[in-house]
Amino acid sequence: MLVSLLQLIRIKDWLKNIIIFLPVIFSGNLSNYDKYPELILVFFIFCFSASFIYILNDILDIKEDRLHSFKKKRKPLANDKLSIKLAVYLLIIFLLLILFLLLFLNSIIYHIIIYISLNLVYSFFIKKIPVIDLICLSFGYIIRVDAGSVAIDVKSSFLIIMTIFSLSFFITSIKRLVEFIYQNKKRISLNFYSSRILNLFIYLSSIAFLISCLLFFLQKNLYLLTIFPILVFFLFRYYKLAINEQRGEFPIDLVFKDKILFFICSGFFILILFLYY
Predict the structure, then answer these.
(1) Is the dihedral of CA 68, 71, 77, 80 positive or negative?
(2) Among the listed residues 144, 149, 141, the one whose alpha carbon sits nearest the alpha carbon of residue 25
(3) Cα(264)–Cα(155) distance, integer angstroms
(4) What pLDDT is stored for residue 4 in this prediction?
(5) Residue 111: pLDDT band by 50, 70, 90 thresholds?
(6) Cα 84 to Cα 105: distance, rounded to the nearest angstrom
(7) CA pseudo-torsion sign 69, 75, 81, 82
(8) CA 52 – CA 122 distance, rounded (Å)
(9) Is the pLDDT of residue 188 over 70?
(10) Are 227 and 272 a contacting pair, CB within 8 Å?
(11) In 125-227, alpha helices (H)
(12) Residue 189 reports pLDDT greater than 80
């Protein structure tokens, strides 16, 4: 049951919230340790908020997921390992945890309200609207980054925002492409997509990501340019694995299960710290 609970709250996807720490790295405050307590608090608030949304989506999509062979194996509500009643209790628990933590950090209360509201609107309406659904999901990562900036009292960098948005749009477009090609034709928005359009989104977002990174490197530290070829290889390998092995719907699993992608991600952050500082 514990494994099923962890799958329901998607604890592995909490790693996506690591981007909250990007502002403290690129603002030069990495050694300013008094910033960390608030950042850690922001991290967990967004983790709990994300789990709240994941559980709600699984409840709303349970019928659709039961018709989806791959998702039925992975999602404990769809395969009846956990009950909807328990899922509702968890929703209430996470909502209370979010409200409790916000008592200690009210500076990001609007970020959380916007983040949860955006995801609720997405769950009920926007996920049926092509293109807007991708933009909505990608915007959620911008909210996270800006919350990290607010927590350490710095202004969010436009280039970092563009980098995060374009990378998330790249990953989300791949996810839609995998759904379109292999599995989930039940999603209404997929009726308006085609492989050609989704591949165009993937190419454009990858170019936007690389240009944003390049401009940031040129602005901040020329030594960071040595990382650029690694980023190009990462995008190429991620795309190939996601499409060929049908793993694009679960980005965290894809990165962790492929040793090369995992090594690139780990090495990338180490190199960033070494070259930037």
Answers:
(1) positive
(2) 149
(3) 29
(4) 82
(5) very high
(6) 31
(7) negative
(8) 14
(9) no
(10) yes
(11) 132-151, 158-182, 195-220
(12) no
Calculate the alpha carbon distances from 65 to 73, 76, 226, 252 in Å. Answer: 9, 10, 43, 20
The length of the chain is 277
Contacts by 162-168, CB closer than 8 A, 24 or more apart: 162/208, 162/212, 163/209, 163/212, 163/213, 163/216, 164/19, 164/22, 165/138, 165/139, 165/141, 166/205, 166/206, 166/208, 166/209, 166/212, 167/205, 167/209, 168/137, 168/138, 168/140, 168/141
- Give CA–CA dist 263/260, Å, rounded: 5
Q: 202, 203, 232: which is closest to 217 by C-alpha?
A: 232
Nearest to 189 by CA among 261, 130, 110, 268: 130
Would the pLDDT of 185 be above 70? no
Query: How many CB atoms within 10 Å of residue 106?
Result: 9
Report residue 188 as tokens.
């209404």
Q: Return the amino acid letter for 50.
A: A
pLDDT tens-place string over residues 69-100? 667 677 888 787 888 899 999 999 999 999 99
Structure tokens at 55: 């559980």
For the chain, give the percent of residues with pLDDT over 70. 94
Phi, psi of 169 (to 5 degrees): -65, -40
Taking the C-alpha atoms of residue 83 and residue 152, their distance in angstroms, rounded to an integer, is: 40
Contacts of 24 (CB under 8 A, 6+ apart): 30, 32, 35, 36, 39, 148, 152
Return the CA Rg of the chain: 19
Q: Are 252 and 16 in contact (CB under 8 A)?
A: yes
Q: Quickly tell me which residue has 């791949």 as its tokens.
A: 174
- What does the alpha-carbon distance between residue 62 and residue 57 come to, in Å, rounded to a whole number? 8
Q: List, for residues 56-70, the tens digit of each pLDDT value.
A: 988 888 777 777 666
